[in-house]
Amino acid sequence: MKTLIKVLVAFGILAGLGYAAYGPVQRYFEEASRPKWRTQSVVFGEIVQAVNSTGKVEPVKRVSVGASVSGPISQLFVDYNSKVTEGQLMARIDPRLYDSSVSRDKAVFRTREAEVARADAMLLQALADERRGSQLQKNQQDLISEAELDQFKFMRMTREAELLVAKTNVEQAKAQLENSEANLAFTEILAPCDGVVIERKIDIGQTLAAQFQTPEMFVVAPDMESRMHIYASVDEADIGLISKAQTDGQVVRFTVDAYPDELFDQGKIVQVRLSSTEEQNVITYPVIVETPNTDQKLLPGMTASLSFQINKREGVLKVPNSALRFYPPKERVHPDDRYILDGVEDQKQAVADTARMMSADEKSEASKAKNDRFVWVSDGKFLRAKKVRSGVSDNRYTELVQGDLSDGEELVVGEKPKQ
Fold it and tell me: Which among 25, 34, 76, 235 is most buried, taking Cβ atoms within 10 Å?
């Protein structure tokens, strides 16, 4: 009997202990099974919206230096990277043939001038003969006939014509001489402007043939020590933003591989060209960015990674982009907010399927509607939704235009993996 009583007492004690421990154990397992959320905070500060692209660094201007005359290169006075000033001698084509042409044409010119002098003298003689014949006829009418007077007259006219031809020949010889002198001058290749030689395409002894096409001898880049251009290609979806940034005078920041740790932040958009390019059904437009180059770090041909600043907001609440993209499992959401998730995937697919069938007005409204989003906060066992309206965005945060959020508030961005 006593043994039975002891057993019952022990059983009662164990039952009491089990009952007392049931609540904490239940709470422990509930806590262990409750999901752990990854969160990020709403922050206050500055946000910059940008469009990224790549481009090629080039001089603002490339001046091609060619030759107007043919012949072998006899001398070179500049090389790659040489600094030149306007009018500086860069190269010389062998001038011997052109020197001889000038000497020949000078002789021809002097001959033509002598012919003018002879024709002028003969004209003076014809005038004197005509004048004496007229005087004799006045004094003695029967001494000289009318036929002889006509001969004097026509001889004078002939001499006048000969003088005119001689003068014309002088002009022709002078023009030929000037042409030869110009060709001789063209054997000296002069710099057309101040700049730096970035290409040299000739060597001493090389023969130029300029009869059919002007040969390119040098390429000179003016102003390369003060400024450079970057030729970027921007997708058609972003070209409207780029045009607005140009109008607003927004800055362009970029880096180059040669100086990966240095940020160049004084670029400005100088031109959005209308000549589009299509490649694999992608339309791009050339955008020209100008940047200072006083330290001469930027060289022709460098590849630049650009960020076109589109909008800038200061002193605003910023929502993490990952919080805007997060959609929780339906069972983790408070029953009052589960309707938000109903048919989310179906709606996305429906929008994708009907996007091509939308009118322009419908597409515009649909684009505006994308700014109305939901973010999620932890409320004990479940998540609760908060509706927000977004603004400009960068790669990490989006501007909060409207919504019941505060600085430092934690937003759910995902679920932590179970340990």
Answer: 76
